[in-house]
C-alpha cells in the first residue's frame, strides 16, 4: 500500500504520523509532502528517515493508494482532484471540499463514506467533537435546535497560533490573529461574512446538518479563540424533540462508547482542556436542564482538536477504508 501525507511538517501533519503508528496503518511505501518552504526537512518515523518533498503536479501520478492532506484549502482544491484522477483515495482535512454535494463528510462513529467521489472530507475540529456529543442524543430523542458557543485553542490555527500565544506572553505583537491572544479572547475565527457570522461559525452550522443528515435541525454558533494551546471546548445548548430528563441525557452519553462523562459538580468533576488533551475520546460535563426553553439542555464538551478534531478522525477514516 502506497500512502502519501500532504502537509507532513505541519502541526496536524505530525499528529497524522502519530496516528498512523497508533492505528498500525500497514503501508509499504510512505511519501511525505509539504510546501516548497518546508521541503528537504528530515522526519524520522518508525525507524526510517524520510526527506519531505515539495508537492508538485507531476508527483500526484505516483501510484498512491491513499493520500491524506492537511495543507490548507487552496492546496486541496488543486491537488486532491489530481490525486483522485490518478487513482488514489484522498482524505482531506481542509474546509474546501466539505460542503460539496458529491463529497462525503465523515465522522466514522456517525456515518460512512459512499465513495461517490474518491475525495473524502474530514470535518472542522470543533464540529467533530460537537456532533459526537449530539449524535447519541439525535438517535434517541431527535435534535431540534442547537446553539454552540466555542472556546477554541490556538493550535487550531497551526504553528502560527501557538506562536502568537507563546510570543505574546513575551510582549510580541500577533502575526496570525487580528488582536493579541495572550491574556485575551477573540470572538473571531476565520473571516467575517456579509451577515456578520464568521466562516468558522458557518462551518459548524452547515457541517452539523450534513453529518447528522438532517437539514431541518436549527443550528447557530458563536466561535471564540481562547489562550489555550490544545483542545477546544464547546458549550452546547440543545433542544430535543422528545421530552427527557437530565439523568437520561447523562445516561445516553455514558452508553456511547466515544464519550467520557465527567459530571459531578458537587465533587468538582467536569472536563477542561487539561484532561482532554492527548486523549482520543470526547469529554462532556455540566449537563443540566435549561429552564428557559422546553426539552433543552446545556452540555459542556471538550476534545483534543489535533487528535479527534483532525489527525485521529482522518486516520480512522483511512483505517476503515483499509479494513473494509
Ligand atoms: C480552528 N477550526 O480552530 C479551526 C481549525 N481547523 O481555527
Automatic annotation (TrEMBL):
Pfam families: Semialdhyde_dh, Semialdhyde_dhC. It catalyses: L-aspartate 4-semialdehyde + phosphate + NADP(+) = 4-phospho-L-aspartate + NADPH + H(+). Its EC number is 1.2.1.11. GO terms for biological process: 'de novo' L-methionine biosynthetic process; diaminopimelate biosynthetic process; isoleucine biosynthetic process; lysine biosynthetic process via diaminopimelate; threonine biosynthetic process. The active site is at residues 125, 232. Pathway: Amino-acid biosynthesis; L-lysine biosynthesis via DAP pathway; (S)-tetrahydrodipicolinate from L-aspartate: step 2/4; Amino-acid biosynthesis; L-methionine biosynthesis via de novo pathway; L-homoserine from L-aspartate: step 2/3; Amino-acid biosynthesis; L-threonine biosynthesis; L-threonine from L-aspartate: step 2/5. Residues 2-118 form the Semialdehyde dehydrogenase NAD-binding domain. Phosphate binds at residue 98. Keywords: Amino-acid biosynthesis, Diaminopimelate biosynthesis, Lysine biosynthesis, Methionine biosynthesis, NADP, Oxidoreductase, Threonine biosynthesis. InterPro entries: Asp_semialdehyde_DH, Asp_semialdehyde_DH_beta, NAD(P)-bd_dom_sf, Semialdehyde_DH_NAD-bd, Semialdhyde_DH_dimer_dom. Substrate binds at residues 152, 225. GO terms for molecular function: aspartate-semialdehyde dehydrogenase activity; NAD binding; NADP binding; protein dimerization activity. NADP(+) binds at residues 9-12, 37-38, 155-156, 305. It comes from the Bacteria. Catalyzes the NADPH-dependent formation of L-aspartate-semialdehyde (L-ASA) by the reductive dephosphorylation of L-aspartyl-4-phosphate. Belongs to the aspartate-semialdehyde dehydrogenase family. Homodimer. HAMAP family: ASADH. This is Aspartate-semialdehyde dehydrogenase. It comes from Jeotgalicoccus meleagridis.
Amino acid at each position: 500500500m502506497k500512502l502519501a501525507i500532504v502537509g507532513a511538517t505541519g502541526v496536524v501533519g505530525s499528529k497524522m504520523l502519530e496516528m498512523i503508528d497508533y492505528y498500525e496503518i500497514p503501508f509499504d511505501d510512505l511519501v511525505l509532502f509539504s510546501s516548497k518552504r518546508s521541503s528537504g526537512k528530515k522526519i524520522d518515523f518508525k525507524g526510517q528517515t524520510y526527506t519531505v518533498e515539495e508537492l508538485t503536479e507531476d508527483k500526484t501520478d505516483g501510484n498512491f493508494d491513499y493520500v491524506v492532506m492537511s495543507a490548507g484549502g487552496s492546496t486541496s482544491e488543486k491537488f486532491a482532484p489530481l490525486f483522485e484522477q490518478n487513482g488514489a483515495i484522498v482524505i482531506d482535512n481542509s474546509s474546501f471540499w466539505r460542503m460539496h454535494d458529491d463529497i462525503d463528510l465523515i465522522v466514522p462513529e456517525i456515518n460512512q463514506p459512499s465513495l461517490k467521489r474518491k475525495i473524502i472530507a474530514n470535518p472542522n475540529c470543533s464540529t467533530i467533537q460537537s456532533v459526537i456529543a449530539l449524535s447519541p442524543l439525535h438517535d434517541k430523542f431527535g435534535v431540534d435546535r442547537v446553539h454552540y458557543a466555542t472556546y477554541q485553542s490556538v493550535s487550531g490555527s497551526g504553528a502560527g497560533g501557538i506562536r502568537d500565544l507563546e510570543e505574546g506572553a513575551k510582549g510580541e505583537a500577533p502575526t496570525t490573529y487580528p488582536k493579541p491572544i495572550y491574556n485575551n479572547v477573540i470572538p473571531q475565527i476565520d473571516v467575517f461574512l456579509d451577515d456578520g457570522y464568521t466562516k468558522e461559525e458557518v462551518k459548524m452550522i452547515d457541517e452539523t446538518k450534513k453529518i447528522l443528515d438532517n437539514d431541518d435541525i436549527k443550528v447557530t454558533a458563536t466561535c471564540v479563540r481562547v489562550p489555550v494551546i490544545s483542545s477546544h471546548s464547546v458549550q452546547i445548548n440543545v433542544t430535543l424533540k422528545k421530552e427527557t430528563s437530565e439523568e437520561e441525557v447523562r445516561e445516553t452519553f455514558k452508553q456511547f462508547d466515544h464519550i467520557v462523562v465527567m459530571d459531578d459538580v458537587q465533587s468538582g468533576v467536569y472536563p477542561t482542556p487539561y484532561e482532554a488533551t492527548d486523549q482520543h475520546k470526547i469529554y462532556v460535563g455540566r449537563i443540566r436542564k435549561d429552564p428557559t426553553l422546553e426539552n433543552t439542555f446545556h452540555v459542556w464538551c471538550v476534545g483534543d482538536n489535533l487528535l479527534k478534531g483532525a489527525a485521529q478522525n482522518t486516520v480512522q477514516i483511512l483505517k476503515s477504508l483499509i479494513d473494509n
